[in-house]
Design brief:
With about 80 residues, the chain is mostly helical. It contains 4 helices and no strands.
Length: about 80
């Protein structure tokens, strides 16, 4: 995360998953995010909800302001995209 970046801003779902891939300190979680982005490339918008859920489910061990921002953004996306 860049110095001075706002962590209260709502992230887009792809932006949040990219943040996990690029900034999470846990390699296996970064790998899940990378796989999620690949699935979205193949499945398009139809894959976003499932992949956002799967990435969010792996984030329990990531802590700090950026982690909170990402989790909150994914939770908000999932809440707003219910079938």
């Amino acid at each position: 995360m860049a110095t001075g970046e706002q962590t209260d801003r709502q992230l887009g779902v792809v932006e949040a998953i990219l943040a996990v891939q690029n900034q999470c300190p846990h390699a296996h979680v970064r790998g899940h995010a990378r796989q999620a982005l690949e699935a979205v490339q193949v499945g398009g918008a139809d894959a976003l909800r499932k992949q956002a859920f799967l990435v969010l489910a792996t984030l329990a061990g990531w802590r700090g302001p950026r982690a909170d921002q990402v989790k909150r953004s994914l939770e908000n996306f999932l809440a707003s995209s219910k079938d």
